Amino acid sequence: MIEIVSEVERWRQDGEKIVVATVVATRRSAPRPIGASLAISESGKMCGSVSGGCVESDVFENARAVFETGEPKMVSYGIDDDLAWSVGLPCGGEIDVFLERVE
Q: pTM value?
């Protein structure tokens, strides 16, 4: 979370609305630990990471729904380790990501 704080504060000073996505659970191998965060501004800027790039585009789309409704959202992503290697991903495992607006 610390890695995104300064950017989030800058966006807030610019009047941006922000959604923060945070890894809240991992199972098996996962690219980022619990607490890893990705911030998304309403204008589409992003900073941080929840997966090292594997699921950020889907998290971005889910953030759009959180902007619209104001309701927090939990999303889960996963792929087994064998399938991950067969398609060229660095790890398999599962992560749960919690998205919420920052007021």
A: 0.85
